[in-house]
Structures are given as structure tokens and as C-alpha cells.
Write a structure and sequence with these properties.
- With about 425 residues, the protein is of the alpha+beta class.
- It has two domains: about 5-235, Rossmann fold, CATH 3.40.50.620; about 245-250 and about 260-410, Argininosuccinate synthetase, chain A, domain 2, CATH 3.90.1260.10.
- The protein is built from twelve helices and 17 strands.
- It has helices spanning about 50-60, 70-80, 100-110, 120-135, 150-165, 180-190, 210-220, 225-230, 295-310, 335-350, 350-370, 375-390, and strands spanning about 5, 25-30, 35-40, 60-65, 85-95, 115-120, 170, 195-200, 235, 240-245, 275-280, 285-290, 290, 315-320, 325-330, 395-400, 405-410.
- Helix 11 (about 350-370) packs antiparallel against helix 12.
- The longest helix has 19 residues, at about 350-370.
- The N and C termini lie far apart (about 65 Å).
């Protein structure tokens, strides 16, 4: 269950610039007893009764996907004083934030009526990331959909918060032309089509991140300390890190070293290789070096092992659903190890026909994730096929990690289709 934090005193709204409020409107102010008071700011000739108008405004509320960043903090202010909505911030913990409490406190200080924390790490890995691994969903040769895979669970949890708090709107900070915005739209329609979707970019309130920062400075909205120290915008979780290039992107230039958050420069990695073993059961990773552990702990272990030797870096070009292209950097040390090991195990446990068909399936599964079509009969049907295909994908894989590379050096399974002593006679 998510944890709910609420504002504790009315002075959190001290210094509000009332000039930006729409008129006629009401200011929803929190009191020390967590009750809402309505203070009338302007009352022209009303066509409806005051009681009806007050009921309408009290019921108007929104759940916001909140990260603690400057854009989502500005979104709280924007939703309150431009849209007249009561804001409930929701932050899903997928393993990317070092201090979730600070994120929620930031939401409250920015003016949210409530801040919800959801520990989604285990569910995310077991029911979203690992199924993508088993289906071999990936983009290019190094991006394992770390951002896109969080969205179905995030929207599902936000819809629950909306229902519990009577919210009529759901808000996020994705640009209308971005893949992320399209995913949110499709996922919301699939889960609760009655929710209205809002984003600060949609009504041209802001045209760029520079305008957002200027707005934040004007209204004294500060980002988290982590964002202040970061030079690039990133989206991080246990499955990987998605890092966006800035406006200075130059396709002729390799990614600067300070873009990377998790991984060591391969040139600085130890000169001695590292050997690890990963055990799978029915296609799911269950142990590292003989030690069984829960999914979040397993990913933390693999991320640390891969990052120490510079494994999992990728400089990518993606095709956006809007028809444009963009460049980003991905860091996924743990997922890289799992994909290499899982592929090796499948190579000895699945038939040629099954392996060939899974290549086609993986591409279609990737498309469903990227386009926000997770909650569809097709994805559930593909999962049923994948479950059947993984019935024999159990065993152990040995990996050699060395200065940015990951090589399979051993694999064993009681379901191996290899027959010892049987040699090929081709060419003889």
C-alpha cells in the first residue's frame, strides 16, 4: 500500500502570488487540521449558485506523476493556480531514488495536498521487467525499455489513487509529442477512460525547459538537490537508466563521460576479469553465484557487478511515435548481464523453430511496450506463449566480465538439447 503524507500547516502556501489565480476562483487552503477552507477571492455576477460552484471546485482534483524534478514541481503550482485543481502527487519507487521521503516532502512544499509513496520495485521486476526479458523485448542492441516498462504499473497505481481521492484528472509531465505522453494517454484510456489527462505542455503554457526554469525562479520553486547537481535529465530504476541529451547534442561527438551515472569507464575497470554465475528457473533469474535472493536484491547485485567493469553502456538513436528521431544514452548493467545469460540458456534449451519465432515475437512485444499497449489482449496472449516457451529454460550460465564486455563462458541445464558424443558429419 502506498504511504500518504499530507501538509501539516497552512503556511506552506505563504507567499502565493494571487495575481496568477484565475477569476472567478477559490483558493483551496490547507489548515492545521487537514480540512479545506474556501476563501473567496473574486465574485462577479455568477450564473450559478455559490453552493454549486463550491461543490464543483472541491471535487475537482488531480493525481500527478511526481519525480521531485523542477518540471513536476512547477506542475503542482500550475495545476493549482492555472487549473484550479487540488493536487495529489504520486511517486512510484522503481529503485531510482535514494531518498523517497525527500521527494514527498518536496511535493508538499511545492503545494500538493497529499504525497503518496509506492514501493513498486518487486512488482515492477516480476510482472513487467522479467516478462520483457523472457520475451526478449529490446530496442537496438542495448536498450531494454527501462523507462517504458515502468509506465503501465505507474498509471495503474495512479488510477487507484485517483479513485481513492475522487480525482477527475491525471497529470504527467511528458511533452505532447513524446513517446511518453502517448504511452500515458493509451494506458489511461485502457485503465480508466473517465480520467482527463493534463500536462503543463498541452496548452502551450511552456515551450521549453528554459521557460519552466524561469517560471520556477519567479515563483521560488526549487528542485531537489540531486537534480541541481545533475547536468543531464535522467530516468533511473533497477532495470536501467535513460539519459537525455541536452540541446547541445552533436551527433559527431561521443557521449561525454559525465553523462554516465552508474557505470565506470571501461578503461578504468580492473585488469583482471570477473566471473559470475546466474541461475534461471522457467526463464526467470533467481540466484547469483549460488545465492538465491528476491528480485530487487538480485538486480542491485547484478547492477553493482556490471557497473564496476563498465558493462551496459549504449549510445542510441530512437524513432519517436511522432515520426521524429532523438538521441539518448542508456545504462543497464544488470539487464545487460541477464539478457546475455538468458539468450545463452535459450540457445541450448529451445528448438530452432522456437528460437526463430521468438525473434519475431520479441519485436512485436517491444512495440507493444513502446506504444503503451500493455493492457491489451495481444500482450496477454503473447505472454501465454512465452510462458509455454520458458518451461525448459532453467539452468545456470557463467559470465566473464572484463572492461565493458560480457561474454558467456559456460552454460548448463538438465533440459539441454545437446547430446554429448554426437558430432556433426557435415563436410566429411
Amino acid at each position: 500500500m502506498p504511504r500518504l503524507l499530507t501538509s501539516g500547516s497552512p503556511d506552506r502556501r505563504a507567499g502565493v502570488n494571487l495575481a496568477v489565480l484565475p477569476r472567478p476562483c477559490f483558493w483551496l487552503g490547507l489548515t492545521g487540521t487537514h480540512r479545506y477552507n474556501l476563501t473567496l477571492l473574486s465574485l462577479p455576477r455568477l450564473q450559478t449558485s455559490l453552493t454549486d460552484e463550491m461543490k464543483r471546485i472541491v471535487m475537482a482534483s488531480v493525481v500527478l506523476a511526481y519525480t521531485g524534478g523542477i518540471v513536476s514541481s512547477v506542475a503542482i503550482y500550475w495545476l493549482q493556480y492555472r487549473k484550479g485543481l487540488k493536487v495529489f502527487a504520486y511517486s512510484g519507487n522503481f529503485g531510482g531514488y535514494s531518498n523517497q521521503e525527500a521527494v514527498c516532502e518536496k511535493a508538499l512544499s511545492a503545494g500538493a495536498a497529499g504525497a503518496h509513496i509506492g514501493d513498486l520495485r518487486n512488482r515492477f521486476l516480476l510482472y513487467f521487467a522479467f516478462p520483457a526479458l523472457r520475451a526478449r523485448a529490446q530496442t537496438g542492441s542495448g536498450y531494454f525499455l527501462s523507462r517504458a516498462l515502468t509506465r503501465p504499473l505507474l498509471v495503474e497505481e495512479m488510477a487507484k489513487i485517483a479513485r481513492e481521492n475522487g480525482c477527475t484528472h491525471l497529470a504527467h509531465c511528458g511533452h505532447p509529442d513524446s513517446n511518453d505522453a502517448i504511452r500515458f494517454d493509451r494506458l489511461v484510456r485502457a485503465i480508466n477512460p473517465k480520467l482527463q489527462i493534463l500536462t503543463p505542455w498541452s496548452d502551450r503554457s511552456f515551450q521549453s525547459r528554459q521557460e519552466v526554469r524561469a517560471y520556477a525562479e519567479k515563483h521560488q520553486i526549487e528542485p531537489l538537490a540531486e537534480e541541481v547537481s545533475a547536468q543531464y535529465h535522467s530516468d533511473r530504476n533497477l532495470w536501467g537508466t535513460y539519459i537525455e541529451y541536452g540541446p547541445e547534442d552533436d551527433l559527431w561527438r561521443e557521449p561525454p563521460e559525465n553523462m554516465y551515472i552508474l557505470t565506470r569507464n571501461p578503461q578504468d575497470a580492473p585488469a583482471k576479469p570477473t566471473y559470475i554465475e546466474i541461475e534461471f528457473r522457467l526463464g526467470n533469474p533467481i540466484a547469483v553465484d549460488g545465492e538465491a535472493m528476491e528480485a530487487p536484491q538480485l538486480m542491485e547485485k547484478l547492477n553493482a557487478l556490471g557497473a564496476a567493469v563498465g558493462v551496459g553502456r549504449a549510445d542510441m538513436i530512437k524513432d519517436n511515435l511522432s515520426g521524429t528521431k532523438s538521441r539518448f544514452v542508456s545504462e543497464a548493467p544488470g539487464a545487460t548481464l541477464l539478457y546475455n545469460a538468458h539468450e545463452a540458456l535459450e540457445s541450448i534449451t529451445l528448438s530452432r523453430d522456437m528460437l526463430t519465432f521468438k525473434q519475431t515475437l520479441g519485436g512485436r512485444y517491444t512495440q507493444l511496450i513502446n506504444e503503451g499497449n500493455w493492457y491489451t489482449p495481444l500482450r496477454r496472449s503473447l505472454d501465454a506463449f512465452v510462458d509455454q516457451s520458458q518451461a525448459t529454460v532453467s539452468g545456470t550460465v557463467r559470465l566473464k566480465l572484463y572492461r565493458g564486455s560480457c561474454s558467456v563462458v559456460g552454460v548448463q541445464s538438465e533440459h539441454a538439447l545437446l547430446q554429448p558424443g554426437v558430432e556433426s558429419c557435415e563436410g566429411k
